[in-house]
Specification:
- The structure is a single chain.
- With 351 residues, this protein is an alpha/beta fold.
- It is 23% helix and 26% strand.
- It has eleven helices and 17 strands.
- The strands form four sheets. Strands 3, 4, 5, 8, 9, 16 and 17 form a seven-stranded mixed beta sheet that branches. Strands 12-11-10-13-14-15 form a six-stranded parallel beta sheet.
- α4 crosses α5 and α4 crosses α10.
- One of its GO terms (molecular function) is alcohol dehydrogenase (NADP+) activity.
Length: 351
């Protein structure tokens, strides 16, 4: 079925109205009318061709919230009228060891991305949430129980939320732990909210003194200016866990020195150029670990959404019209947003 969308036709062309073909729902499919779609830095990197292998036309968007319009005859997870979400994945092999552990994000045969993905065994493009509707296998559809008035602010949970929740859960962050969050942006602001709700003592790290009050308001117990050596030294060897959300290349040694015995720093931001290689001695003498993490599996994402609904957690957002996406991209490059743009897809009707 033909569906309205906004697409990039090349790395140098602005996004513009476009029509895409969505499949008719199969037995296990859910057809969703999209209400809101978050704007992720991955969207910008993709449509601008900054990552390899981009397929054009490109319809970005993997922070999708909508309402079920139709379901296939074998669907049991949701029903017509249900509020649902779709994140970064729309399929995986579902047979490998990772998928068997509900870790579809680490599918050994490669998960199928919501946009710029491929069909299993082929190279067909996939189109994301900058569109009026989407059809997804029910396994990759998430139930949303937040208040309907919060739906726009729920959208970023489907990427920014799960990207930070997954490492917090994997490394068992909870009461009695002193943990750090590096960076107070789209990912960092969610990490602070989630870690605070999990009961940890949260220390936010930023290079910008102007962000101190904002970090405290998000739930941080302390704020450290990471360029101030005296402030950093006060926290030496005291953290159980640090979540580093910064996507720019920077010195990791300064943060590794803050981990206590058996502490771990997990990096979730992907810089355009590599981080300087960290020194080895700090790892050896405190048995510290440096790790990475990417989004989360479907079961874990549902757990995160349910936790956020119970604790009244959403993202801090600015809602925009689809016609303003290029201006939003320009502001994102300047970090001029607190902390996530979300597109009201009703504006697509007039695009």
């Amino acid at each position: 079925m033909l569906t309205r969308a906004y697409a990039a036709h090349s790395p140098t062309m602005p996004l513009a109205p476009f029509e895409i073909e969505r499949r008719e729902p199969g037995p296990n499919d859910v057809a969703i009318d999209i209400l809101y779609c978050g704007v992720c830095h991955s969207d910008l990197h993709t449509v601008r061709g900054e990552w390899p292998g981009v397929l054009y036309p490109s319809v970005a968007g993997h922070e999708i919230v909508g309402r079920v319009r139709a379901v296939g005859p074998d669907v049991t997870k949701v029903r017509v009228g249900s509020l649902v979400g779709v994140g970064c994945m729309v399929d995986s092999c579902r047979t490998c060891a990772a998928c068997a552990r509900n870790l579809e994000q680490y599918c050994e045969n490669g998960f199928i991305a919501t946009y710029n993905g491929s069909s299993l065994g082929g190279s067909e493009n996939t189109y994301g949430g900058y569109s009026a509707a989407i059809v997804v296998d029910e396994h990759f559809v998430l139930r949303i129980t937040h208040n309907e008035n919060d739906l726009a602010a729920v959208a970023p949970l489907l990427c920014a939320g799960i990207t930070t929740w997954s490492p917090l859960r994997h490394w068992n962050v909870g009461p009695g732990m002193k943990i750090g969050v590096v960076g107070i942006g789209g990912l960092g602001h969610m990490a602070i909210k989630l870690a605070h709700a999990l009961g940890a003592h949260v220390v936010a790290f930023t290079t910008s003194p102007s962000k101190r009050e904002a970090a405290l308001a998000l739930g941080a117990d302390e704020v450290v200016i990471s360029t101030d050596n005296s402030q950093m030294l006060m926290h030496a060897a005291s953290f159980s866990f640090i979540l580093n959300t910064v996507a720019a290349s920077h010195d990791l040694d300064a943060f590794m020195a803050l981990l206590k015995l058996d502490g771990t720093m997990t990096v979730v931001g992907v810089p355009s150029s590599p981080h300087p290689s960290p020194a080895i001695a700090p790892f050896i003498f405190k048995r510290r670990s440096l790790a990475g993490s990417v989004i989360g599996g479907i079961a874990e994402t549902q757990e995160m959404l349910d936790f956020c609904a119970r604790h009244d957690i959403t993202a801090d957002i600015e809602t925009i019209a689809i016609q303003d996406i290029e201006a939003a991209f320009a502001r994102m490059v300047k970090s001029d947003v607190q902390y996530r743009f979300v597109i009201d897809m009703a504006t697509l009707k007039t695009a």
